[in-house]
Design a protein that fits this description.
The structure holds two protein chains of two kinds. Chain A is α+β, with helices and mostly antiparallel strands. Chain A has helices at residues 2-10, 25-37, 54-58, 65-91, 104-130, 167-175, 196-221, 233-236, 273-277, 296-314, 323-330, 347-351, 354-363, 377-394, 403-409; strands at 15-22, 43-46, 154-159, 180-185, 279-280, 283-284. The chains are: A alpha+beta, B mainly alpha. The A-B interface holds A 52-53, 55, 66, 70, 97, 99, 105-106, 108-109, 112 and B 385, 388, 391-392, 395-396, 398, 434-436, 518, 520.
């Protein structure tokens, strides 16, 4: 420390620039115009508050910040579009609520957010960078008079590094308006280079920033057989039993318990094979059970249930062209083993007894899931009644018409 | 701040002919208000007081002086209660001649406003004058030709005026959104105590005075409702309601009587708020009483609440119930966005035109236009934000009661108009208005203002017309004629209102700050 001080006293302190002090912003603006017209480049003013009209007086050009922000906003927009296209539609296509893989309306919120985020960050960062901030030290900081810049004094500094700088000329020019003109010494003895520690720190942080990306890239190309890491064990292992799990309390170690042999829950006897299983003896029933009234009301009920449960796949006409199938075909699901839903007006299906249709609805067929748990038996029979009607509409002949209707067609 | 408070009263006093009387008054007020014994303050008020000779030369001055005694007596009371009624929030209410005068001396009395005491720049024409006669003729002609022509075409269309009513409703709402926008503009300027806007606020106050004329124009839309005709509103048809489960549930709200009651309420609120705020401002031109600004501020707070509710429900009643099965809670905000957007365009155009005709040439500067341009840009973005928010939730949830409204617009024939909306109402004006150079360029700003008013009309057309024809846009000369007619009524009525008043406030307490306003 003392060594340094000795050096500084022996070395001649360089002049940083010429500082002028004013007590009126209007005078400062006049002085600025003179300095501007004299053609100086490396100079600045310091005021306690923003002074209207000082920008043109100093010859400050309009900032390029808006252009930076525009570019950043467009970059954010493009990033959001690319990110969502690549993740949702290209690299790992996944259907969400039956929407197309690349669904622009769903992408708009992210596009909006990234545009705003990058614009806002660039506005702040660009403002700081264009203003050369943060500026940790400046010779003015050590000047005692300069402290009044936050109170009631205005300053103008022309730096010695300006190509037009000439100490006497500058002093004369500033003295025309200023209350006080004096040279500003560069007393700051801090070395110009960044401390070693900061440089090493930045290098390490930069290297560390690559690590997550490297890990992600590695994970994409490798397989790992070890179990996943459990960050919240309480949530991963809850003290409850799930279906198909082990429970050591019971001899058979099953968590889900079978019905006790020889018992039936109230209202669940269901001994009527015809009504509950569509069986008549060992064969499929060919008639509707007695509990089901073949009537207009049942037909309406069947139509309504059909439109809710069956139409999404089989279509409102039952021809296997529902929205789910249309969407699956439009996104090329066929190559991935998509089995299209049956056309229920197909002659083969027409030949099936109603009992077999009932069984298909109850337990499902091929990739059609079981609807037994969702649809009450009465409604299943009502749907079959409606299906029979649909089948007839597709295979009607002249025999189905009344003589008067035939006459009208002729 | 405390010392500033005392200023207005003193300056009022010093406009009296006898300086001595005002001086003798001062000590009496001193014990009451401790703030007034600030010495700096007294100096300032003396400096800023107009020279007595000039005031005496004024013919109106004796009148003003004779009015003075009454408020003077009340003064101690007001001053005493002031710390209670007005906190530091009222700091900006005070006339700041001390700030404004060095730049723009108030010695310009007489050269500008006819009733003197104009605190604005010297030698500026702030009266509409003989232009109002021309405008009345042009507007009246447009109204007669437009409305008459549209009605004649509607009668010959042979669809029981159904097309005419829809065309007319679009044009009517085009005028109503602009006028509602002017009401909101006044409310928000008072609520925020905006310093930039007083010089342009009077134009909004003139436009808000169109509200009674719009109430008369709205009667045409009411005719089918009263007659039980369902050409516009299907809920007015008992057979239609009988077939719709949803409409039976909505009948308690969507029925003729309640609809008419709400209609009266909306226009009562809009006319009441608008005329009161405009009246306060015009009165201030004569009396210069800063208390009027405080009154407008106090009215604006509940007024804003009423405005939000009436605009939302007004849009729901008059536009959304054209397709009564549909509902969207976002709808009112969507229409509100259009109100603000269109009014700021009209404001910019009116001011540009007035300056072209030699009015307000000194007080309204490029800085004010820059701000109006910013608001136009902001509401372009706001409109798109709201429009998309409404669309995306409905698109994602995909519920039939909601998608029914978008189906004709996106699938069955109006797709191209929807694309025009997206590109023409957002993308193009966004990039068109984003630059500050555009907002500060008179011609460019005028172009975008006109452009936005056109796309705003398309926006309303897109909202209303599919309920008449869901398959295609039924373009007709009726649309244009109805628009010309409504615009003509608004122009003529605005000219009539403007002919009797100044085109900008002359004694608004924030006028000086507004004149000195700078934008970077």
């Amino acid at each position: 420390m003392s060594e340094k001080k000795d050096k500084s006293t022996t070395k001649k302190t360089p002049v940083y620039g010429i500082l002028a002090e004013y007590s009126d912003p209007a005078v400062l603006i006049e002085a600025c115009k003179k300095v501007r017209d004299a053609g100086f480049k490396k100079w600045d003013t310091y005021t306690p508050f923003p002074v209207h009209g000082i920008d043109p007086a100093m010859g400050i050009k309009p900032t390029i910040l808006p252009w930076l922000v525009l570019c950043a906003g467009l970059t954010g927009l493009a990033t959001a579009i690319t990110l969502q296209w690549w993740t949702n539609a290209h690299d790992y296509p996944w259907i969400v609520s039956g929407k197309p893989f690349w669904s622009i309306p769903a992408n708009v919120p992210i596009m909006f957010e990234l545009t705003v985020l990058l614009s806002a960050l660039t506005t702040l960062g660009g403002m700081l960078a264009l203003n050369k901030l943060p500026h940790p030290s400046h010779p003015l900081d050590l000047k005692e008079r300069f402290e009044r810049v936050t109170d009631d004094k205005f300053f103008l500094l022309i730096e010695a590094s300006d190509p037009k700088y000439d100490a006497d000329e500058v002093t004369a020019l500033l003295a025309e308006d200023a209350d006080l003109v004096e040279p500003l010494m560069d007393d700051d003895q801090t070395p110009a280079e960044l401390p070693r520690g900061i440089i090493y720190g930045l290098v390490i942080l930069t290297a560390a920033a690559i690590v997550p990306f490297a890990l992600a890239a590695h994970a994409r190309e490798s397989h790992n057989r070890s179990p996943r890491i459990h960050i919240v064990p309480d949530m991963d292992w809850q003290t409850k039993y799930k279906a198909q799990r082990v429970n050591t309390f019971f001899d058979d170690r099953r968590a889900d318990r079978p019905f006790v042999e020889g018992t039936v829950a109230r209202g669940n006897l269901r001994e009527d094979d015809h009504f509950y299983r569509g069986k008549s003896g060992d064969t499929w029933a060919r008639t509707f059970p007695n509990q089901v009234e073949v009537s207009e009301a049942t037909m309406k009920r069947g139509e309504q249930r059909f439109d809710i449960f069956c139409a999404p796949c089989h279509g409102l006409q039952g021809r296997g062209d529902g929205m789910v199938n249309k969407r699956a075909e439009s996104i090329g699901a066929g190559v991935d083993g998509w089995v299209p839903p049956s056309d229920i007006t197909d002659p083969n299906l027409m030949k099936q007894p109603v009992g077999q249709l009932f069984n298909s609805i109850t337990h499902g067929v091929r990739n059609m899931p079981a609807y037994g748990p969702q649809i009450e038996p009465e409604d299943r029979w009502a749907i079959i009644l409606y299906v029979r009607a649909l089948q007839r509409t597709r295979n009607a002949t002249t025999k189905d018409l009344t003589p008067s209707e035939i006459a009208s067609l002729k | 701040m405390a010392s500033k408070k005392a200023k207005p009263r003193k300056t009022v006093k010093q406009t009296e002919p006898e300086e001595t009387s005002s001086k003798s008054e001062e000590p009496t007020s001193e014990p009451v208000s401790a703030e007034e014994d600030d010495e700096d303050d007294e100096d300032e008020t003396k400096d800023s007081a107009p020279e007595p000779d000039e005031d005496e030369a004024k013919k109106d001055e004796p009148k003003a002086a004779s009015k003075k005694p009454a408020p003077k007596k009340e003064e101690p009371k007001v001053a005493a209660s002031k710390p209670v009624t007005s906190g530091p929030a009222f700091e900006d209410d005070m006339p700041n001649q001390a700030v404004g005068q060095p730049r723009k001396p108030a010695s310009g009395h007489g050269a500008s406003g006819k009733d003197g005491g104009d605190h604005g720049p010297e030698g500026e024409n702030i009266r509409l004058g003989d232009l109002s006669g021309t405008l009345l003729k042009v507007g009246g002609g447009m109204a007669v030709v437009g409305l008459g022509g549209a009605a004649a075409l509607g009668a010959t269309a042979g669809d029981g005026f159904a097309h005419f009513f829809h065309s007319y409703l679009v044009a009517f709402w085009w005028g109503l959104t602009i006028t509602l926008g002017s009401l909101f503009f006044i409310l928000i300027q008072h609520l925020t105590k905006a310093r930039w806007s007083p010089v342009v606020r009077r134009v909004a106050e003139i436009f808000v005075s169109n509200m009674p004329a719009l109430a008369v124009l709205s009667l045409v839309v009411l005719v089918p409702v009263i007659l039980g005709n369902s050409a516009l509103y299907p809920w007015n048809d008992p057979h239609h309601v009988a077939q719709s489960h949803v409409l039976q549930h909505k009948e308690g709200y969507l029925n003729k009587t309640f609809f008419l009651i709400r209609w009266v309420f909306y226009f009562a609120v809009w006319i009441g708020l608008g005329s009161k705020l405009a009246k306060n401002s015009v009165q201030q031109d004569v009396s210069g009483d800063p208390a009027l600004s405080r009154k407008s501020f106090a009215l604006s707070a509940p007024g804003m609440l009423l405005f939000a509710l009436t605009t939302t429900f007004g849009a729901i009643d008059m536009i959304m119930s054209l397709e009564p099965e549909f509902f969207s809670t976002m709808f009112g905000v969507y229409v509100f966005a259009g109100c603000q957007l269109s009014f700021h365009c009209v404001l910019a155009l009116t001011l540009l035109w007035l300056q072209g005709a030699g009015r307000l040439t000194k007080s309204v500067s490029v800085h004010h236009f820059h701000d109006i341009g910013k608001m136009m840009f902001a509401f372009i973005v706001f409109w798109a934000y709201i429009a998309f928010s409404q669309f995306m939730l409905i698109w994602y949830a995909d519920i039939p009661e909601e998608t029914v409204w978008f189906k004709p617009r996106f699938v069955e024939g109006w797709q191209w108009v929807s694309i025009v909306q997206l590109v023409g109402h957002f993308v193009i004006p966004f990039f068109g208005l984003v630059s500050r150079h555009v907002k500060r360029n008179r011609k460019a700003l005028a172009f975008w203002a006109i452009y936005i008013l056109v796309v705003h009309y398309i926006d309303l057309y897109w909202l209303i017309m599919p309920s008449y024809d869901g398959q295609r846009a039924p373009l007709s000369a009726m649309d244009l004629l109805a628009l010309i007619g409504v615009a003509g009524v608004l122009i003529a009525n605005a000219a009539r209102v403007a002919s009797g008043i100044n085109l900008r406030p002359t004694k608004d307490p924030r006028l000086a700050k507004s004149l000195a306003f700078e934008n970077f």
